[in-house]
Design a protein that fits this description.
83% helix; mainly alpha; elongated
């Protein structure tokens, strides 16, 4: 369970840094990342992309 949570947090942070760079071309800070987590506009990509990464990683680990 700890590995799943660690993978999710890692994917979430990387996703948010990528969104910040592509949208605003600047280095985001922790306040920006946490603000995006609670903004209704960004909640879907902020949760769907890391969840898909974790599920895909678990599926590939199970199959291979």
């Amino acid at each position: 369970m700890g590995d799943i949570l660690k993978d999710f947090i890692l994917a979430f942070v990387i996703t948010e840094f990528l969104f910040a760079y592509l949208e605003y071309r600047y280095r985001p800070d922790l306040i920006y990342i946490l603000g995006r987590l609670f903004a209704p506009k960004y909640i879907a990509p902020a949760l769907i992309i890391p969840t898909a990464y974790v599920v895909l990683k678990l599926l590939l680990g199970f199959l291979f």
